[in-house]
Every structure is written in C-alpha cells, then in structure tokens.
Amino acid sequence: MQMTQRDLAKVTGIPYSTLNAWLTRRRGTGGGISPDHLRALAKGVRLTVREMFEANGRQVPGDLDAEREAKLLRIYRNLPVEGQRALIQTAEALGRSMRAS
C-alpha cells in the first residue's frame, strides 16, 4: 500500500501542513526535517529509513549504522582496558534493558 503524506500525518499525529513543509524543505531544521526525525517517522509507521527518504524524494543517507559502529569502535580503542571492560558491561546492560522494554 502506498502511503501519502496525508496518511503519514494522520498516523504520526503531525499536522499535514507541518509534515509537508518539512518534506518539501520549506521549513523545519534549516533545509527540511532532519534525518533523525525522518527515522523516527519511519519507525512509527513501520517503514525502512530508505523507504521514507525515497518516498519523499530525499537523498538516502549513507550507511549510518556503520558510521555509528565505527565511532563506537574508535571510542573503545582509545579507552584503557578498564574503560573497555566498563563500556562492554554498559552496552550489555543497555541491550538487556532494551529487550526487556
């Protein structure tokens, strides 16, 4: 099923005029809605990020998951061993709490 901007506005609770202005880059975060907001919208209506960007004629961002992983790895590598262990424990605890909620 093809979702229109009006459908998306209805599902997300965002006024159509606001959503349309974001997606056509008439107002918002200095040139349109931010990628993070689009991701949140995509998640709310069970679309992939790629589908959300493509449906609105926006350039699909690069592999941001890989960028975040690379950043995390850089942080990890710059920590002393004790910090690396603490980071791993924190990440594991966060993973458990996210699965539980």
In short:
The protein has helices spanning 5-12, 16-23, 35-44, 49-55, 64-77, 81-100. It is mainly α.
Notes on the structure:
The protein has 101 residues and is mainly alpha-helical. The protein has 2 domains: 5-55, no CATH class; 64-100. The chain is 66% helix and 0% strand. It contains 6 helices and no strands. The chain has helices at 5-12, 16-23, 35-44, 49-55, 64-77, 81-100. It is elongated. The two termini are 30 Å apart.
Q: How large is the share of residues in beta strands?
A: under 5%
Structural class: mainly alpha
Q: Give the helix level as a range of percent.
A: 55-70%
Main sheet specs: none
Average pLDDT over all residues: 76
Q: Domains counted in the coordinates: how many?
A: 2
> What is the radius of gyration?
18 Å
Figure out the total of helices: 6
In total, the number of strands is 0
The global form is elongated
Helix-strand blueprint:
Blueprint: H1 5-12, H2 16-23, H3 35-44, H4 49-55, H5 64-77, H6 81-100
Helix pairs in contact: 3-4
Spell out the key features of this protein.
101 residues; mainly alpha; 2 domains; elongated
